[in-house]
Amino acid sequence: MKRFAVAFTGPSGSGKTTLVEKLSKILIETREVAIIKHDPKDKAVFDKEGKDSYRFSKTGAEVVVASSTRTTYFSKRNKELDEIIRMFNHFDILLVEGLKTLNLPRIAIFRNKIEESYLSCSEAIAIDNTIDLNNYTIPNHIDILDLNNTTQIIEWIDKNAKSV
Fold first, then answer.
1. Which of helix, strand or coil describes residue 77?
2. Which of 8, 42, 43, 72 is deepest in the core (most CB within 10 A)?
3. pLDDT tens digits, one per residue of 100-121
4. Virtual CA dihedral for 144, 162, 21, 75, nearest 10 degrees?
5. d(Cα 142, Cα 139) in Å, to the nearest integer?
């Protein structure tokens, strides 16, 4: 089974989550999609206080909540990308939001301004019309994509995603 992955990075508020959501909705029509979101500030809330799954996860144990429509996995341990990928049994394309140290082809997302520190870990940038490229020196090896053109971005993913 061929499985491919690509990552998205960029400053807070740049539109990473919105783009991953849009791409997923399109890709899911013809492919099995998996998504990993990095939570570097450890602020995401996954369950409500007082519920069984919340209480179990607070113990520090690895917790799986299974129902007839979904399975949710709670872990208090850091997992490497390979471990996380093994948890996803079947997928065609993995979209990773964040984790800019991973060795994956990466699209950096920018609105209003380009933060050049992201260019060293990116193979492409996706920008909208709030960016004036005349104000920046973009390295020649970085592809420039239209943030609002999901077809163009999916074509880039199909050409550049890494087999995992």
1. coil
2. 8
3. 778 899 999 999 999 999 999 9
4. -140
5. 6
